């Protein structure tokens, strides 16, 4: 309870879209913004793209209290899942060239705490033979913020956060899950999803079995988008100023809200649904969330302060800014797919079907 109240107090200074001071970094928002990372520890330079050994990413994250920077750009191809330590900061924005990416395996923060990750591309794909793993796993983790990251080709989930406490996923792209074709699964919480672009998933965008802030997101070409499911739990959801846009894979546009039962409490305002797939952003207000109990005020005191953009403004901001920087081939494809506003997109079973270079993973030049 103390930690929960602390997160609310710290997040209360939110004033503008992606621009305010928190513990994690300037501009951090939401419940994960209390993460301290490894900013006060030793700076570790990743000097090669090897799977392991001195100077590798795996070696960099093997010890706590590290502030990790990259002297190289390109893809790190994993031979097995890589496990992070607690109290680390991963600064993907320091990588030269097209930036840094992790492919062919899971990045795991399972059971760890105080982790900050920025501008990192995590793309599992079916080069990972373990179909029970995800692109990023933070199961039972606490105090985690993922900002301006890019997730793609997750097999189990794209982002798995079962049992996670105090997490934020912000300004990121969550696209093209394969396998189960799921976006994100969150349990325990609280969690914040802010300013993200979700593209072409079957479901779980996200699956929220927790108290959630879902603000200024864009969800495109969904079969089911915001989901609570048969949780057997009572949770509260602040769903504010998001835009749901149907695509070729959307069979029922009303499944923008899915399995929202009467045991869930929802504050929904400013959300829009564009259901006609005509290539024009011309949706209508959509704030009736299943049979859930309607809240007259947000459950989280910081939610209205975060929602500085209308749903339409969020579309422009997300298309312009979401994902790791600089924007690479995979993210450009995800954004252009969403920018078709209903006329393009499919749900994939493997990354190669995208037709992108490097077997679908895209090319990162360091």
Could you explain how this protein is built, in words?
There is one protein chain. The chain is mainly beta. The chain has a single domain, classed as Pectate Lyase C-like, CATH 2.160.20.10. Helices cover 11% and strands 31% of the residues. Strands 1, 2, 4, 5, 7, 8, 10, 11, 13, 15, 17, 20, 23 and 26 form a 14-stranded parallel beta sheet that branches. Helix 2 links the parallel strand 1 (42-46) and strand 2 (66-70). This is Pectate lyase C. InterPro entries: Pectin_lyas_fold, Pectin_lyase_fold/virulence, Polysaccharide_Lyase_1. Keywords: Glycoprotein, Metal-binding, Signal. Residues 1-21 form the signal peptide.
Low-confidence runs of at least 5 consecutive residues: 1-21
Helical percent range? 10-25%
Top-tier CATH class? Mainly Beta
Beta fraction: 25-35%
Using DSSP, what is the number of strands? 26
Biggest sheet layout: 14 strands, parallel
The CATH topology label is Pectate Lyase C-like
